[in-house]
Amino acid sequence: MRPSRRPRPTIGERVARQLGWLPNLWRLWVLPYGAWLMNGLVQVFSKFRGNTEKEEEKVVVDGGVWSVMLKCLIHVAPLCATIVLAAINLKGFFIGNNYLGSTEDTIQSLDQLLLQITAKLYELLIVASLTTIVLDVLRRELLTESEGLPFGFVLAPFQFQDLTYWLSPDFWYSQYALRSRAKRYKIVLLLATSTTIAIFAGPSSALLMLPQTFTHWPGGGAHFTMAGGQNSLWPDRLEEFPRWCALTTAEEAEKSCSTGNFEIIAQTLRGWRQQQTLFNIDITDGLVRRHMNVIFPDFGKGDTWAIAPHLATCLYSEILTNMWHQAIFGASEASSEMQPFFKYRYRKYTGTTATIQAQIPIVRVNCREPVPQTFQYWYTVQPEIGETKAYLQPVAPARISESYVNSSRIATVWVPPPADDPRWNSSAYLNIQFPSSGGSTEDTVMTCSVDARWASGNIVGSLLGFWNGIQYYNASVWYEPTKKEYPGHGYAFPAFDQVSFRKVHLDSSWLQGVVPQLGSQFASYTTLSSALEVLGFAAGAESFSDQQGPSNRNVVEAAVAALIADGMSQTGYAKNGGGNLEDMRDVLNGEGVPTSPHDDDLLLSGRLDLPLLKKITTKPSDPATTQLRWDIFIGGLGYSANSVAYYLALTVVFAHALLALVHTAWSLGRRQTSGAWASQSDMLALAINSRPTAELAGTAGGIKMLSRLGLPVRIRDVHARPLSEYASSQSSGAPLVTRSEHSSGTDYNSLQLLVGKDGWLYKRNGLVELNGKY
């Protein structure tokens, strides 16, 4: 008979088999050697504290500067930690992508754990320092003041860290029993401050000790100068496109200027899917990689608009980014700000970004559904940004030329808007003729309104910390578009006063340069016509007749907006780099860029002033220049007090530091210190060695008459005066005699807690002699 197969062990059985050595480790190693270690520690501490059968005489109050300084050493460690943490959080300290050292996950987790343990240790040091301060103040009240201290305050140095102490009868009856208003305010304020610091010391220490993860840590910056003024870089009227882009073939356009981007725009828009309200078009023209944002309206209503980064500004950012990479490795090591460790930290970057505040092009387009070709067309009057009122308005006839006989191609014609109507926001109008289809012999025309503007915004370069060509530039205005659904309209733009807009007039000659003619046979067949054919609109009106009609109309709007925004983004490029791409590549490769170590230091510290590059010169007819600011930000771990929570945490640790310094100065001024009754065990021993008092009779099982908590308590040398004198002072409270220091040859301990008249502390059996009150 074939033997049965053994069942496969479960996960629990396999784990138990793998960890079977743990019980033996515990039994053979941990228990015996652990007990031996603990016994050894006990022996060492016993040797240090004394291990005699009889308690030795102790010095309750010691004098001298050195004794006071030794006692105040408990404040040194937390004060030093406070100084360091405050300095790195207030000034800022960048660590890098990881903690320094090994980048393995285990080591990084261990570093994080050690910082958490250090934060807890810092909290414990603060609480120990506060306990010393409170104990010194209350112990002085017990030893020297004639009024003494209320009974409920005797254990306050060991209870103030707990918030429930403030709700207990011990606190409320004790503070009420203090006769002196000044003393009441002093003690209550001390306890309140110490409790607050002790409660918030934990979260404050963790907040200040553990680094944050930053995505925008300042990594350097510079001012740079561009050739041309505002009218050259961001003109209000675009009249003529650079003549080397007014070409006859798409192949030549791709080689010389960015009008060749129409194919990239068309191919990218083919990937758009319905309900995508935000779409990115990635443009790579041999210089920099740019992201153009296209925003579609919801449900096919309203405008479609495009935002593009300014090309010439991106080129300067690329130059400064290359300089920044070199500066990390080439900064002067002699500079105190640019130490080798500093440079090493900046090499450990992630998510590096750069920003430039500049003008960016924004274009919104609204197209109507195609209609049969007539002698008059209607255009949408685009409302002011922030308004919702839109209506239709006819303008002068602007038909496609009747000489255009090839009805199988898409034709485009730009129409200037009327200049005498102040309500007219559109910068240009566009007629798009679609060929006849479906047996119809009549072409259809789509009319579009174009509103082009300059807006104040940021040009953001992302992933600049890498050298493998994945860097790209984006543009964003200084607001996030609010998406609202107005009745009958889909305009979703912010109020006009939220953004600094400037209207732009687009001349027909400039628009013809943006979308130049392709071929020489038909003047109306342009790069826009080719892009629309790539998008699948060669079928004409049939493309807009089904359920996808509104979405297809939005695609046409996106293509028009993207092409115009891309053309506007090229303004100023001719003045800042030359007439073709090859000239600008020379500039990007370092021609005329300063590379001295001093410039590297200035760039990393954000103080570089980059003049106009040698390869870029101004013309006598237009000598104006424009200065902009470039800043680079890196991501990683760092310290920085950048929120209210950090300032509150610093307030907590600064309050402790102030208390510690005042306590040190107070102790040095008195030149006296004491280490007696520093624990609850010491106070318990003092109570056990106490004689019972009449007013505390019947309280062995607890105190029900809460007024007893307000009885004044003192510590006095009972042999300085007859004990009967204290016992007979029933009018001021029966004596709570708590035996303290053992004195040979006496029946009771010399120091006891008393309630009654004042006493004197003399040098008896090793105690310090004081001339008068302590």
From TrEMBL:
The chain crosses the membrane at residues 21-45, 65-88, 187-210, 644-662. Keywords: Membrane, Transmembrane, Transmembrane helix. It comes from the Eukaryota. The keyword Transmembrane applies. This is Uncharacterized protein.
